[in-house]
Write a structure and sequence with these properties.
The complex is a heterodimer.
Chain A: H1 2-15, E1 40-42, E2 52-58, H2 68-81, E3 90-94, H3 98-110, E4 113-119, H4 124-132, E5 136-140, H5 145-159, E6 163-164, H6 173-189, E7 195-199, H7 204-216, E8 221-227, E9 255-259, H8 261-275, H9 281-296, E10 300-306, H10 323-331
Chain B: E1 2-5, E2 19-22, H1 27-37, H2 42-45, E3 56-60, E4 63-64, E5 80-85
Parallel strand pairs in B: 1-5
Antiparallel strand pairs in B: 1-2, 3-4, 3-5
The chains are: A alpha/beta, B alpha+beta.
Chain lengths: 337, 90
C-alpha cells in the first residue's frame, strides 16, 4: 500500500500539481475529517482472468458506512458556501438511503434539521440509521423507486420555503466530491489502473472520478454497473416519466453494464466467502461488471468502487436466504439501490 | 430470432407481453419489427429524429447499445435485448 501510494505520488508530481491522499490511518479533529481516504484492497480470488488484477475501493470505511459521506459533506458545504441555508432551514433530500444517512449525521453535527424522502420499500436498517441521527423520514411510493422520491421531494420543496434541497442528482458538488477526493485517492494508490468501475445511481461517482482519471490518465476506461430494476419498481406511466440525473453526462462513460439482482447477490456472497469483504448489493453489481470486463481483457488492472458495507441489508436475508426466493422478493419491489 | 424484453411501462401497448421473439440483424431492425407489430409504441421508443428516446435504454446481452454502435449494434440469433426506462438511484 505504502509503496503504491509513493509511486503514484511521484508519477503525478512530474505531470501536474497533485496532492497525495492522506494516509488511511490517522488522527482527525472531527469525524467529518475522517471522511474519505478509504482503503484500496487487491482482491485475491475474484478475478476470472489471472492476467487482470482487480482492486476494490472499500467505501464502507467511511464514518456512516458508505461512499455518500463524501457527497453529503460536499453538498452541505455547498449550501453553506452559497448562503442558502440557515439554522431555521430544513435540509430536504430524496434518497434511497445512504445519502440520507450521511446527510443526517452531518446535519446533526452542524445543527441542521434534515428531512429525507425515501421509497417506502427500503430495508428497515436504512430508515433506522437516518432516524438515529435525527432525520425525519417522509415516505414516497415504493413502486415508483427513486424517481418517485425525487418527484415528491421537488413537490414538497416548492411548497415550503424552509426546505433547502441539496439535490444530489443535479448538484455539481456531488461529482466534485469525487473529482477532488475519490479520483485522486485512486490514482495515487493505483497509478497503473486501466479501468474504473462503479455503480450508476446519481452518476456522481462515475462523473467525478471519470473526469479526473480521464484528465490525468488518458486511455483509462470508465465503466458503469447498473441494476436491472425489479418488475415492481418500474411503476412509471410512460417512458417519459423516466429520469436521467442532471449531473449525468453520458460521454464520460465507455460502457454500461446491466446486472441482474441474482448475479449481484451471487457476487456479493463471493465477496464475503472468497475475499472476506462484507459489502452491500450495489458492490455485488459492480463486481459482476468488473468480472465481465476482466474476462474480456488481455491483461491489466481494474479498480472497482464498492459503495457500502452489508450491515444495512441483513434484514432482507441478503447473505443467507435461498437465491431464488431472494430474487423473487427483489422482483416484487424491495428497493436496494 | 432474438428475445426482446418489454418493460412493464410499455406492456399495455404490446398486449401485456413480457417478451417477444423478433427477427433482425441489428437493434434498429428489431425496433422496426417491434413497431410494425405494435404501432401503439409509436413515439415512445424513438424520438422525432429517429434515434432512441433519451428516457429509454437498450441493452444487448446486458450491455448498453449507446456505448456500442447505437441502433446499428448487431444482434445475433439468441441474443437477449432488453428495453428499460431510465431510472436513478442514490
Amino acid at each position: 500500500m505504502t509503496t503504491l501510494r509513493a509511486a503514484g505520488a511521484s508519477t503525478m508530481s512530474s505531470e501536474a500539481p497533485f496532492e497525495p491522499a492522506t494516509p488511511v490511518a490517522g488522527r482527525y479533529e472531527s469525524i467529518l475529517d475522517a471522511i474519505g481516504h478509504t482503503p484500496l484492497v487487491a482482491l485475491q480470488r475474484m478475478s476470472p482472468n489471472p492476467a487482470v488484477r482487480i482492486l476494490a475501493k472499500l467505501e464502507a470505511a467511511n464514518p456512516t458506512g458508505s461512499v455518500k459521506d463524501r457527497v453529503a459533506k460536499a453538498l452541505i458545504e455547498d449550501l453553506e458556501q452559497r448562503h442558502v441555508i440557515g439554522l431555521d432551514s430544513i435540509i430536504l433530500e430524496p434518497t434511497s438511503g445512504n445519502t440520507g444517512i450521511a446527510l443526517a449525521m452531518i446535519g446533526r453535527l452542524k445543527n441542521y434539521r434534515v428531512a429525507l424522502v425515501m421509497p417506502d420499500n427500503i430495508t428497515a436498517e436504512r430508515r433506522q440509521m437516518a432516524a438515529l441521527f435525527g432525520a425525519e423520514v417522509i415516505d414516497s411510493p415504493g413502486h415508483l423507486g427513486s424517481n418517485g422520491a425525487v418527484a415528491l421531494a421537488k413537490e414538497l420543496a416548492a411548497r415550503d420555503a424552509r426546505f433547502v434541497m441539496p439535490y444530489q442528482y443535479g448538484n455539481p458538488a456531488n461529482p466534485r466530491a469525487h473529482f477532488l477526493g475519490t479520483g485522486p485517492e485512486i490514482l495515487a494508490a493505483c497509478p497503473e489502473l486501466d479501468v474504473f468501475v462503479a455503480g450508476l445511481g446519481t452518476g456522481g461517482t462515475l462523473m467525478g472520478v471519470g473526469r479526473y482519471l480521464k484528465a490525468r490518465k488518458p486511455g483509462v476506461r470508465i465503466v458503469a454497473a447498473e441494476p436491472q430494476p425489479g418488475e415492481a419498481v418500474q411503476g412509471l406511466r410512460s417512458l417519459d416519466d423516466g429520469f436521467v440525473p442532471e449531473i449525468f453526462d453520458a460521454s464520460v462513460l465507455d460502457a454500461r453494464y446491466l446486472v441482474t439482482n441474482r448475479e449481484a447477490i451471487e457476487a456479493l456472497r463471493d465477496l464475503v466467502y472468497l475475499e472476506g469483504i462484507f459489502a452491500g448489493p450495489s458492490s455485488g453489481a459492480v463486481m459482476v461488471a468488473a468480472a465481465r470486463l476482466a474476462s474480456e481483457m488481455d491483461g491489466g488492472t481494474i479498480v472497482a468502487l464498492l459503495p457500502d458495507g452489508g450491515w444495512k441489508y441483513l434484514s432482507a436475508g441478503t447473505y443467507s436466504r435461498d437465491l431464488g426466493e431472494m430474487e423473487a422478493d427483489l422482483e416484487g419491489g424491495v428497493n436496494w439501490w | 430470432m432474438s428475445t426482446v424484453f418489454i418493460p412493464t411501462v410499455l406492456r399495455p401497448a404490446v398486449a401485456g407481453a413480457k417478451s417477444l421473439e423478433l427477427a433482425g440483424s441489428s437493434v434498429r431492425e428489431l425496433v422496426t419489427a417491434l413497431l410494425e407489430r405494435h404501432p401503439g409504441l409509436g413515439g415512445q421508443l424513438l424520438g422525432p429524429d429517429g434515434e432512441l428516446n433519451r428516457f429509454v435504454n437498450v441493452y444487448v446481452n446486458g450491455q448498453d447499445v449507446r456505448y456500442m454502435d447505437g441502433l446499428a449494434t448487431p444482434v445475433a440469433d439468441g441474443d437477449e435485448v432488453r428495453l428499460l426506462p431510465a431510472m436513478a438511484g442514490g
